[in-house]
Amino acid sequence: MSDIVLETRDLVKHFPLTRGVVFKKQYGAVRAVDGINLQLRRGETLGVVGESGCGKSTLARLLVGLETPTSGDLFVQGKNMSQVSAEERRRGRRNIQLVMQDPYTSLNPRMTVGDIIGEPFEVHPDVLPKARRRARVQELLDLVGLNPDHINRYPHQFSGGQRQRIGIARALALNPEIILCDEPVSALDVSIQAQVINLLEKLQHELGLSYIFIAHDLSVVRHIANRVAVMYLGRIIEIGTEDEIYDNPTHPYTQALLSAVPVPDPRLRGHRDQIVLTGDVPSPANPPSGCRFRTRCWKAQDVCAEQEPMLEVRDKSGHPSACHFAEVRDVVHASE
Amino acid sequence: MSTDVNVKMEALAGVDPNALPLQVKDLQVEFRTRNGIAHAVNGVSFDLRAGETRAILGESGCGKSVTAQAIMGILDSPPGFITGGEILYRGVDLLKLPESERRKVRANRIAMIFQDALSALNPVFTVGFQLAELFRKHRGMSRKDAKARAVELLDLVKIPAAKQRVNDYPHQFSGGMRQRVMIAMALALDPEVLIADEPTTALDVTVQAQIMALLAELQRERNMGLVLITHDMGVVADVADRISVMYAGRVIEEAGVHDIYSTPAHPYTKGLLESIPRLDLKGQQLSAIKGLPPMLTNIPPGCAFNPRCGYAQDICRQDPAPALFQVSPSRTAACHFWKEVKGDE
Ligand SMILES: Nc1ncnc2c1ncn2[C@@H]1O[C@H](COP(=O)(O)OP(=O)(O)OP(=O)(O)O)[C@@H](O)[C@H]1O
Ligand SMILES: Nc1ncnc2c1ncn2[C@@H]1O[C@H](COP(=O)(O)OP(=O)(O)OP(=O)(O)O)[C@@H](O)[C@H]1O
Ligand code: SF4
Ligand code: SF4
Ligand SMILES: [Mg+2]
Ligand SMILES: [Mg+2]
Q1: How far is A252 from A86, CA to CA, in rounded Å?
Q2: Going along B16-165, which residue ranges are E strands?
Q3: How far apart are CA B221 and CA B228, in angstroms?
Q4: Would the CB atoms of A268 and B292 count as touching at under 8 Å?
Q5: What's the sign of the alpha-carbon dihedral B257, B263, B266, B272?
């Protein structure tokens, strides 16, 4: 079996911008995801980082089939999801599950925890006979560190961190191989965040899961990811191993992003190489020509407006970066 | 509208220019709700010097915003009531002043910026109008002068093309720009104390860095005291001079920034530091704090942290709660076992 469990080729999602009520006229499009190529390997965690609105959640929704791509292909276990039978697509989908950001709104308040976690069995009844479902749900509760006796409780009787565990248990119900986490800990308090991160890591080892972990917190992603993709305005602008991205970033945007993260160590105050960007993020409905980052880039030259830099290896850092002038800059100084 | 509201604060009875710009002493706030009394703030004390940055650090629901609201006099009351303590501006207890006097101090000397800038700005007026109103109301300026000051302020907080943008509405600004407008409004009347309640939590890191740099610059120029409320240990390490760590409505540790990070003396502070992933550490183990913070209507007897604490002994489960012990001349911690926790590093 192939080592690549999930792959996208030129994946695109544009949301049309329309005017008029009766005769809708399209006058443009939000280019939320604009040509994404990535591969997820078995057992690894691929982190996806980038600022608000860069298309992370849209990408996640495309990958789990909640959104249909405008163009491009999605391969699950080597099979192109747009070219297989409906039955095979359903089975592919079952293999990829989503854990969402907001543990407060992503659970139906009128359903018991047992019904919430067991809901996937209603959609895929062939996975487990009815009689064995309750026991399976209790097993799942136990697996994520919740009391199996609380199966009849409602979401409001749980804290934020516990609700996130419920969301994880539901995602695990159908024994998927791939879990997509869209900001799974950003709504949680710091002391609870670590509990959920540790749980996700434990489950990955025990169940051999592959993760795509979306977050805007670069410290959390460094902790959990093996490889990292950095997104800007619907595109991946740099991708590499955790070390390549954090120790040897070559794209100016990655460098600025990393340099802006405060480090919880007052001894480093004033000693960090902080790159403060000027200007606002352009609208994804109207991205700049050439390099999308050029309106905020301190290295921009004429060529940056004329030619779009491809995501490819250009320098000795050895990992792909979408910058004409990619070169390593050390912005995160390793401690201890 | 009267024009004499631009009071010289020294005229306020009892103001001592040599006293600290802000001192909070044993502040108590409770919410009287149907489910019982929630003790949101249980004896919070801290000092703020001119030019100093005091961080108030703690997790959701520990009473940070309620403390700020009590200082600003904008507590939601009822159900919220200040049941004890003092809030001193240069030696004068604001809680004992008549409402009109208190309002003057708060409008002129102590200002606040909120987490959510969009909800704090009025959507139906232009940004320029809202800024100009401050000068008209509190400084009695003419419409024209006030507008000119508004442009100056937008310039000060680095809004590009301030002269044109002054006529825009809040929704026409990005999140980072709105937060800058909030800062401009807070600084308009040249306060001595600025309270910033999670000023960058809703923003991306690159924008957060811009805003924090701007705040630091303005603070330095004006020698203003800053109370920074946050749960972000990274931001605190970057900007704070002194830190008050809160848990369940109490300050459980108070110290200078270097002491807190190098030798935390309270298990909760220590646990927080060990549970955050760091950008500059690879392969780091995260040791989570077990359990959950208590309900404020049902705070456990003794030390409120005891059900989650690895150091807890019997004494921790009995009232009274541990007092703030003097760890060194310049720091305190509310833990019976602070010596063990701190170690001899
Ligand atoms: N259903 C939709 N219709 C129109 N535009 C959309 C839709 N969903 C997302 N967008 C737009 O697509 C862009 C990308 O949004 P997305 O939610 O994927 O960003 P994100 O990276 O997840 O941001 P955040 O960090 O804030 O969650 C945004 O400009 C957003 O406004
Ligand atoms: N208007 C209110 N009515 C009832 N209870 C309130 C009210 N405002 C705050 N509280 C309670 O007071 C406690 C402290 O709230 P506060 O807003 O100060 O928390 P915080 O530390 O600022 O948290 P966060 O980090 O989430 O902003 C909370 O438990 C909250 O439920
Ligand atoms: S291609 Fe040009 S504008 Fe884009 S990141 Fe590189 S230097 Fe900057
Ligand atoms: S007083 Fe006891 S329970 Fe509280 S923090 Fe100290 S050791 Fe832990
Ligand atoms: Mg998102
Ligand atoms: Mg708050």
Answers
A1: 43
A2: 22-33, 36-48, 53-57, 80-89, 92-93, 110-113
A3: 17
A4: no
A5: positive
Chain segment B213-266, per-residue pLDDT in tens: 888 988 999 999 999 999 899 999 999 999 999 999 999 999 999 999 999 999
The span from the CA of B277 to the CA of A84, in Å, is 41
Which residues, listed in sequence order, are joined to residue B32 by a DSSP beta bridge? Answer: B37
Alpha carbon distance A177, B132 (integer Å): 59
* pLDDT tens for each residue of A264-322: 999 988 888 888 887 777 888 889 999 999 999 999 999 999 999 999 999 888 999 99
Sheet holding B92-93, edge to edge: B36-48, B22-33, B80-89, B92-93
Q: What angle do CA A107, A109, A112 make, to 5 degrees?
A: 85
Q: For residue range B135-170, list pLDDT tens digits in order.
A: 998 888 999 999 999 999 898 887 878 888 899 998
Q: How far is the CA of B324 from the centre of ligand 4 (A)?
A: 12
pLDDT band, very low/low/confident/very high, at A112 (cuts 50, 70, 90): very high
Whether the ω angle into residue B320 lies within 30 degrees of 0, i.e. cis, is: yes
Task: Quote the tokens at residue A165.
Answer: 């565990």
Radius of gyration over every alpha carbon of chain A, rounded to an integer in angstroms: 21
Would you state the structure tokens that stand for residue B99, as one six-digit string?
A: 């409402």
Whole-angstrom distance, CA of residue A233 vs CA of residue A239: 15
Chain B residues whose CB is inside 8 A of the A243 CB are: 282
A201, A213 Cβ separation under 8 angstroms: no
| SS3 sequence of A66-133 | CCCCCEEEEEECCEECCCCCHHHHHHHHHCEEEECCCCCCCCCCCCCHHHHHHHHHHHCHHHCCHHHH
Nearest-atom index, ligand 4, CA of B336: 1
Q: What is the DSSP string of B305-345?
A: TGGG-TT--GGGGSSSPPP-EEEETTEEE--TTHHHHHTT-
The interface pTM score, or ipTM, of the predicted complex is 0.85
**Distance (Å, whole) CA B334 – CA B264:** 12
Decide if A263 and B275 are in contact by the 8 Å CB cutoff.
Answer: no
**DSSP assignments along A305-327, one per residue:** HHSPPPSB--STT-S-B--TT--
Top residue of B210, B261, B279, B290 to mutate, by most chain A CBs within 10 Å, is: B279
**Min Cα separation A153/chain B (Å):** 18
Find the ligand nearest to A189 CA. 2
As a 3-state breakdown, chain B gives helix, strand, coil percent values, each rounded to 5, of 35, 20, 40
With a CB cutoff of 8 Å and minimum separation 6, the contacts of B283 are: none
Whole-number Å distance, alpha carbon A58 to ligand 5 midpoint, is: 7
Q: What are phi and psi of A135, to 5 degrees?
A: -65, -40
- Residue A233 CA, chain-centre distance (Å), reads 15
CB of B76 shorter than 6 A to ligand 2: yes
Question: Pairing relation of β-strands A227-232 and A235-241?
Answer: antiparallel
Centre of ligand 5 from the C-alpha of residue A2, in Å: 30
The answer to whether A232 and A50 are in contact (CB under 8 A) is yes
Question: Which residue puts its alpha carbon closest to atom 25 of ligand 1?
Answer: A52
